[in-house]
Design goal:
extended; 42% helix; 3-stranded antiparallel beta sheet; 3 strands; alpha+beta
C-alpha cells in the first residue's frame, strides 16, 4: 500500500497531508500509531511521502474509527490534496468560471448510481 501511495505522490497526483493507522486487537484494545515517531524502514517510507501538515488527524478521529473497527483489524486515515486538480482549477478561474461545489463519490456509490440508471 505504501508503494502505491508513494508512487502517487512521486507522480504529483496527490500530496499526503496526514496519515494515521488504527489497530484493534482481539481483545478490543485500540492503538493509534503516531507515524511522526516511528523508527526504521516504515518511518522512512512515510517520510518519503513529503507530508506537509501532519497533525490534521485528531485523537478524536482515531478514537471514532477505533470504536467502529472490528477486533483483529486495522484501518488507515489519509488526508490528501488532489494535485492534479490544481491545473483544472486554475483553468476554470482563468476562464472566469466559478467553483460552485466539490466532493468525492466513493466507487461503491458510483456503482450503485449506475445500477439505478440501468433500472
Amino acid at each position: 500500500m505504501l508503494n502505491a501511495l508513494t508512487d502517487a505522490v512521486s507522480k504529483r497526483i496527490i500530496n499526503v497531508l496526514d496519515l494515521a493507522v488504527i489497530l484493534k486487537d482481539e481483545n478490543g484494545n485500540v492503538v493509534s500509531l503516531e507515524l511522526n515517531n516511528l523508527d526504521g524502514e516504515l518511518a522512512q517510507s512515510i517520510d518519503a511521502l513529503h507530508r506537509e501538515k501532519a497533525g490534521l488527524i485528531s485523537m478524536e478521529d482515531t478514537e471514532e474509527v477505533g470504536e467502529v473497527l472490528a477486533p483483529n483489524n486495522a484501518a488507515g486515515l489519509l488526508i490528501i490534496e488532489q494535485l492534479w486538480a490544481k491545473d483544472l482549477k486554475r483553468a476554470l478561474i482563468n476562464a472566469n468560471g466559478k467553483l460552485v461545489s466539490e466532493g468525492r463519490i466513493h466507487p461503491d456509490a458510483a456503482a450503485e448510481l449506475d445500477e439505478e440508471e440501468e433500472n
